[in-house]
Amino acid sequence: MFDVNQYAVVADSIADAGRFLYERGWSPATSSNYSARVDQDHIAITVSGRHKGQLGAGDVMVVDIQGRPVQSDSRASAETLLHTALYQVFPDAGAVLHTHSVNATVLSRLVPAGELLTFDGYELQKAFDGVETHETAVTVPVFDNTQDIEALAKDTQEWFLKHPEQPGYLIRGHGLYTWGKTMADCLRHVEAFEFLFECELATMRVRP
Ligand SMILES: [Zn+2]
């Protein structure tokens, strides 16, 4: 069982996040999925296929930390296991956001296979939890896209157990995953990533 009042609070935070992310154009065409922790064993997550700018009470459901629905007949997001994999690795994570922006999609296709995306020298790197200076590079892995979510969940979990300092990851041609202690932290991480993606792509356009 989970606390219904706590669930209502985090479900609201998910709907608010959806309105913001949809407005910014980062969650088009019912793509993306968002989650927030209800307690140690329960996660509130968006129901599959819902419009992310218009999330209401019926568009968020509870799964356990293994991704199984709790007291719900709805179908959780297809990528639920990617969320629960992160909550298992990061016990202090309170929210996980997955977005499908143009810039994340384009940039993820430009990073050569086997290489990390690296941000270096940007003041805004300090928006990520634990980053105190622009002088430390922030690196982001890019996983190949797949419809085998179980395998990808396993790969991402193994990766972040070894690289817990990295604040997010990209799926090639698909989108961004990032997390935070609170929904506000997590939204700040999405915005920071989007700013950095934009800077990288703008640099590529003007570089001779
Ligand atoms: Zn996705």
Automatic annotation (TrEMBL):
InterPro entries: Aldolase_II/adducin_N (IPR001303), Aldolase_II/adducin_N_sf (IPR036409), MethylthioRu-1-P_deHdtase_MtnB (IPR017714). Zn(2+) binds at residues 98, 100. Binds 1 zinc ion per subunit. Residues 12-201 form the Class II aldolase/adducin N-terminal domain. It comes from the Bacteria. Pathway: Amino-acid biosynthesis; L-methionine biosynthesis via salvage pathway; L-methionine from S-methyl-5-thio-alpha-D-ribose 1-phosphate: step 2/6. Keywords: Amino-acid biosynthesis, Lyase, Metal-binding, Methionine biosynthesis, Zinc. Its EC number is 4.2.1.109. It catalyses: 5-(methylsulfanyl)-D-ribulose 1-phosphate = 5-methylsulfanyl-2,3-dioxopentyl phosphate + H2O. GO terms for molecular function: methylthioribulose 1-phosphate dehydratase activity. The keyword Zinc applies. Its cofactor is Zn(2+). Catalyzes the dehydration of methylthioribulose-1-phosphate (MTRu-1-P) into 2,3-diketo-5-methylthiopentyl-1-phosphate (DK-MTP-1-P). Belongs to the aldolase class II family. MtnB subfamily. This is Methylthioribulose-1-phosphate dehydratase. It comes from Marinobacter xiaoshiensis.
